[in-house]
Amino acid sequence: MLAVFSLCTAVSLSEGESIWNVAVGGFGNDVARCVQQTSDGGYIVAGWTTSFGQGNADAWLVKVNASGSMEWNRTIGGVGKDEAYSVQATSDGGYVIAGCTESSGAGLSDSWLIKTNGSGVVNWDRQFGGVYNDYAFCVQQTNDGGYVVAGYTESFGAGSSDYWLVKTDQLGIPLWNQTYGEAGLDQAFSVVQASDGNGYVIAGQTNSLGAGDSDFWLVRTDSLGILLWSRSFGGSNADVARSVQRTSDGGYVVAGWTTSFGSGSSDFMLLKVDADGRQQWSKTYGDIYSEEAFEVQQTVDGGYAIAGSTTSYSLGGWDFWQVKADANGNRQWDQLNGGASDDRAYSVKQTSDGGFVLAGSTLSYGEGLADFWLTKSMPPPPRPPENDHDVAVTGVLPSRIVIGEGNLLAINVTATNLGKYRETPMVFVYANASVIDEPCQIFLEIGQSESFILFWNTSGFTKGVYMISAVADPVPGEEGNALANNRYDDGEVIVTIIGDVQGDLKVTAHDLFSLGKAYSSDPSSHNWDMYCDFNQDSTVDLSDLQLLRQNFGKMPS
Predict the structure, then answer these.
(1) Are 401 and 488 found together in one domain?
(2) Residues 271 and 329 grouped into a single domain
């Protein structure tokens, strides 16, 4: 099999330092859903491919070295659609994969468990399911050498779909299975062995229980899958949990997205609970459009790394977005990677060198409709306090880099207290030398980072390129070298004619073509392009076309 491999230069607009980006694929759709670091310092990646293999889609296992160069790849599947969602290195040096198959099994789609050796050669595979659709989204090797698989079933249980947990021995032979749910839609996406080693914790979404259209749903079982407790978390709208991990204090952290809380259409949501599932805190991260988190990992410093995608901060469609939070969920830094089209991150792991690897798919780079995309980054260098009083602006992130003159631009600013005392700095945001919005005074505990949003009304500003900066006024006692980090320059924002999608200060057929591709879309659509939403009403429709037509052929006066 020939897989196209390319190192690509992606746009990174935030604080983490990008090391490399790798696109792997052919001329079809190739989507990576899970990445793990391997014992040799490289990475194993699982997903699916329509570029290679036998069927409509095949599970695809790709091994790369520490620099992202491919060492080998394997397709696994039959004539139907076969997809992998989870991979884990096993104690014998091989790999275990979970997904779903339409090529074999009993129903329309069956849960699928695959075991390979260290070179990706299949040792065995098993299907579990009934006459309808059954899916496996997560697999973990258990303390007894067997496996536990979580997903959902439409063949068994009480509702239209139920959580489904299958426990197998080391050869994939089922020992027991359990369903959890009621009359509605209950879907599990992640499972971990419980912190006490006795049972399992499962995360996903429910609309059978809870407050809204769907809620985060956390289920705890004993070692035989018998329900011990369940907790739902959410508001009046849709809230979806995609990942659960054990934490060092014996509790759990859950990540997904919320449309009930936060700033935009959907935001990253991070939930921390104790060992009994009682909420300790929750945080949202995002801006005026859409963010979806798919995986969380606790980091070596006790904080959390969350990975998913954003349209609020992106250069086009969806972009990879990683958020690093401290042990209390306060955002410390973030990293954005992507290009002009959709780039979706589904998995993140902290690496042995203290960095991070993300896996997902890219439409911006590579050879095909979508390619596997791996990104390797390092956190920003630490900035120790120079004296007892030290306030730093540690992030400035405009919601877009092209804005029509007269529209509002949301700018997310993060300030951090690096000193030894509580501080209440005043923060100003500038476009070139002009202050935008009212200054914001914030309260910072020792070591705390705080993010807030200011808005720039671009009416009256000359069309052109502006540098966006945030500056914290010195706090009492802050002097000398400590003042060096009070200013943060983000980069350039282009104020242009309404209708200019490209940011080239004119409205041409290229802009009309871009609007045509995004027409009738909203932030939940695959063809959404925020730069075509000229009136900022979260839809691309006739009103946007009329605005473009009014300025077609124009250039700045």
Answers:
(1) yes
(2) yes
CA–centroid distance for 225 within its chain:
30
Task: Specify the residue for token string 């096993």.
Answer: 90
Distance CA 341, CA 171 (A): 42
Inside any domain, residue 476: yes
Task: State how many domains the chain has.
Answer: 3
Q: Do 537 and 460 share a structural domain?
A: no
Would residue 524 count as lying in a domain?
Answer: yes
Domain range for 176 is 90-377
* Residues sharing a CB contact under 8 Å with residue 471, sequence separation 6 or more, in sequence order: 393, 427, 428, 429, 430, 486, 487, 488
Q: Is residue 28 part of a domain?
A: no
Q: Residues near 542 by Cβ (< 8 Å), separated by ≥ 6?
A: none
- Between CA 413 and CA 402, with CA 434 as vertex, the angle to 5 degrees is 65
- Are β-strands 134-141 and 147-153 bridged in parallel, bridged antiparallel, or unpaired? antiparallel
| pTM score, whole prediction | 0.75
Going from the C-alpha of 301 to that of each of 298, 326, 335, the distances in angstroms are: 8, 8, 18
Could you tell me if 529 and 455 lie in one domain? no
Residues in the chain: 557
> 253 and 122: one domain?
yes
265 and 171, same structural domain? yes
Contacts with 199 (C-beta within 8 Å, 6 or more apart), sequence order: 193, 220, 221, 222, 223, 228
| Within a domain: 77 | no
Please give the radius of gyration of the chain, using alpha carbons only, rounded to the nearest integer. 24
Of the candidates 33, 44, 42, the one whose C-alpha atom is nearest the C-alpha of residue 347 is 33
> Which CATH number covers residue 409?
2.60.40.10
pLDDT in tens, the chain (557 residues): 445 555 444 444 455 677 899 999 999 999 999 999 999 999 999 999 999 998 899 999 999 999 999 999 999 999 999 999 999 999 999 999 999 999 998 889 999 999 999 999 999 999 999 999 999 999 999 999 999 999 999 999 998 999 999 999 999 999 999 999 999 999 999 999 999 999 999 999 999 998 889 999 999 999 999 999 999 999 999 999 999 999 999 999 999 999 999 988 999 999 999 999 999 999 999 988 999 999 999 999 999 999 999 998 877 789 999 999 999 998 888 888 888 889 999 999 999 999 999 999 999 998 878 999 999 999 887 655 556 888 999 888 888 888 998 899 889 899 999 888 889 899 999 999 899 888 888 989 988 998 888 899 999 898 889 999 999 999 888 887 777 888 888 778 999 999 998 888 899 999 999 999 999 999 888 888 888 999 989 999 999 999 999 999 887 66
Nearest alpha carbon to residue 253 among 197, 291, 296: 296
Are residues 290 and 430 located together in one domain of the fold?
Answer: no
Identify whether residues 371 and 399 lie together within a single domain.
Answer: no
